[in-house]
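Example protein was shown:

_____
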Amino acid sequence: MAFTSEITRGMIINFNNEPHVLIAKEFYSPGKGGAFTRTKLKNIKTGKILNHVFKSGEKLDQLDIETKTMQFLYADENDSYFMDPETFEQLTISLDMIDGGTDFLHTEGKYIIIIYQGEAISVQMPAKIALIVNETSDAVKGNTSGNATKEAILETGAKVYVPLFIKTGERVVINTETRQYVSK
């Protein structure tokens, strides 16, 4: 059990008898009335996102989960395959459970797999990931008004916008949550 003051982003709770991951939370303390926490919850099984308000001091049922750091091997049409680098045990996870599908999965990457009741329920992406630009257009001279960007296709097939000075073959750091360029 956890109180509303103890909840954090990424926490997995039992809500309406189903596992939900807490995506976002905001604490409000209005001058009149009781304080509350406004949350955004994602149902792990269905992927449905809902908003809910918890009163201050309310108890939430935090689920016992296990986490494993695993290396991504490959993906086919429906599933992705991960391996435990210590035991070489392999795990299959449906692409539906991974935000963004294979956009930020690469074979050198290590990812945190969340396991609930012996079943993998989610893949936690790192906040930032470095990937190589496979394809991008050249910058056009004079096209620099404001924050000029161009589309780039990364080694995983993801399309993101990068600054004009980025060239094909360079490694860029991307924020996996916002899908935005961070640095070179």
Observations:
- The two ends are 43 Å apart (CA to CA).
